[in-house]
Design brief:
Layout: H1 3-8, H2 17-34, H3 41-50, H4 59-68, H5 75-87, E1 91-94, E2 99-102, E3 112-117, E4 123-125, H6 129-141, E5 150-155, H7 158-167
Parallel strand pairs: 3-5
Antiparallel strand pairs: 1-2, 3-4
Helix pairs in contact: 3-5, 4-5
Bound molecules: zinc ion (3 copies).
The site of one zinc ion has 7 residues, from helix 7.
Length: 169
């Protein structure tokens, strides 16, 4: 991946995405050891590919990338790797995009709250578990048992907002 690709994949303010990837992989290694699981080659590579950007990756895109690299990319292998990563809390499924996103705080139990940019399709995970407690309480007032595991909010990210402001002064 070229430097330019990396930059175009950044969300929000400029940041060092290599750092995101390194942190995610280090967390994955630690969690797998703690859980007595093995981060096999295909699981690790799938996680790396999902972490290539902050734009969620679909199962078929992942399958194609793994195939290019000579992995066994039969759909069951790829889905098993995705199931493992989901089960270990290392990735989230963004339902509205039918795609997978690397989790940036996999070592903490949490629900998935996502800010999805309509423009660049980058997704930012944010961590406001108090919102979840408030939603459960409000829903309960209506006699409703909330079961949602993810909350997906769409809008415009900081970078796209800045770009559109620059284009229309
Ligand atoms: Zn990043
Ligand atoms: Zn997460
Ligand atoms: Zn954006």
């Amino acid at each position: 991946m070229t430097k330019q690709d990396l930059q175009s994949h950044q969300y929000g303010a400029r940041h060092n995405h290599d750092h995101c990837i390194d942190t995610a992989l280090a967390t994955a290694e630690t969690l797998c050891v703690q859980q007595g699981q093995r981060l096999t080659k295909v699981r690790r590579r799938a996680l790396e590919l999902i972490w290539e950007s902050h734009r969620p990756l679909g199962a078929y895109q992942l399958l194609a990338k793994l195939a290019e690299e000579g992995f066994n990319s039969a759909p069951p292998t790829v889905y098993r790797a995705l199931d493992f990563l989901l089960g270990a809390g290392l990735i989230h499924k963004v339902e509205s995009m039918n795609a997978y996103l690397g989790c940036s705080h996999a070592d903490k139990a949490h629900k998935g709250y996502f800010l999805i940019c309509d423009e660049c399709h980058n997704v930012m995970e944010f961590d406001y578990q108090d919102i979840h407690a408030a939603l459960i309480a409000k829903a309960a007032q209506q006699g409703f048992e909330l079961r949602a595991e993810t909350i997906e909010l769409t809008g415009l990210c900081a970078k796209c907002k800045a770009n559109s402001a620059g284009a229309n002064p």
